[in-house]
Design goal:
four-stranded mixed β-sheet, single chain, alpha/beta
Length: 315
């Protein structure tokens, strides 16, 4: 049976302007193109997962009564995603305006939340209902960090065997405790640097003391790494890009990308790749999951949008 995967978080409207170079302050610059997309971590992850075979994708998100909310629901459902909407009638969908520089491939984001509130634990549990149908639940550590921590604990109480992962892109309340509650926390390089870690292996060693099962750290063009409480002795490393560091830790090199076209959603592609591969395999195949995650993230850099190159799945 295909795994049932539930992604919980926020979706927003992305308006992306491409320019030749990033505009100086108080200047007027011509935009070369404009693209309007479904965005946000959850929106990007489900769009990637919906293109991969052998998994059932569900998402729980806040929706309003505006036209773009209906567009989001319709588009995702057309892609095979089951949308569980927590509706606030007068809510505006959060909006991100992104400036993409062709010269440097940088992206600059202006985010407007409007009157959108983050999902509460009670809203999610009420909307989702029976947790027993889900094999994997993925969360976002958002501004209401303690509320997300409460939700993770409630999910664990209702379905002890469910696998949980979470994206941690900023340090929020409950951060350290969350590392020990979920199975696979995915921590960004930015968080690690804020905490004083200056490289991948140092971050894995330093943060793993808070983890009960596993830890994943992403480090951009330096790749990613994983720490496992149960050790790496039973793991198989079938690629030269995978490296066993010690009895609990291994890393994966980043795939080289010569010309970066669009970095928007690369981190979400990584998360989607790890969730997809790990939900299909037993834990002895975690190196393969990290390899696919890195490969999907690199592939995303080569084109605009969240379309998946089918060849990426050939490891």
């Amino acid at each position: 049976m295909p795994p049932n995967i539930l992604i919980i978080g926020n979706i927003c409207k992305d308006i992306i302007y491409s320019t030749q170079c990033y505009p100086p302050e108080d200047s007027k610059v011509k935009a070369l193109s404009r693209d309007i997309r479904i965005g946000g971590n959850t929106g990007n992850i489900v769009q990637v997962l919906s293109q991969l075979r052998n998994c059932n994708i569900n998402c729980c998100v806040k929706l309003g009564s505006c036209q773009f909310s209906y567009y989001i629901k319709s588009m995702l459902e057309n892609e095979g995603v089951r949308v569980i909407g927590v509706v606030e009638p007068d809510m505006d969908i959060p909006e991100s305006v992104l400036i993409h520089s062709n010269e440097t491939s940088s992206r600059t984001c202006l985010h407007y939340r409007g009157n959108c509130n983050d999902l509460t634990c009670e809203e999610v549990l009420s909307a989702v209902g029976d947790m027993s149908k889900y094999d994997w639940v993925h969360l976002e550590h958002r501004r209401n960090g303690l509320e997300v921590l409460k939700l993770a604990k409630q999910i664990r109480e209702r379905r002890a065997e469910v696998v949980m992962s979470i994206d941690i892109e900023k340090i929020r309340e409950g951060f350290e405790e969350m590392l020990g509650v979920v199975d696979y926390p995915i921590v960004s390089k930015e968080v690690c640097r804020t905490l004083g870690f200056d490289n991948l292996q140092a971050a894995l060693a330093g943060l793993s003391v808070h983890c009960s099962h596993a830890l994943i750290v992403t480090w951009g063009d330096k790749g990613a790494g994983m720490w496992l409480a149960q050790g790496t002795d039973n793991l198989t490393f079938n690629s030269d890009m995978l490296h066993k560091v010690d009895e609990n830790t291994f890393t994966c090199d980043a795939f080289r990308v010569e010309d970066i076209v669009d970095s928007i959603g690369a981190g979400d592609s990584f998360s989607a790749g790890f969730i997809y591969c790990s939900s299909q395999k037993n834990k002895t195949q975690l190196p393969e999951s990290l390899l696919l995650a890195c490969k999907l993230a690199a592939s995303k850099l080569k084109h605009c949008g969240m379309t998946v190159d089918p060849s990426v799945l050939d490891l």
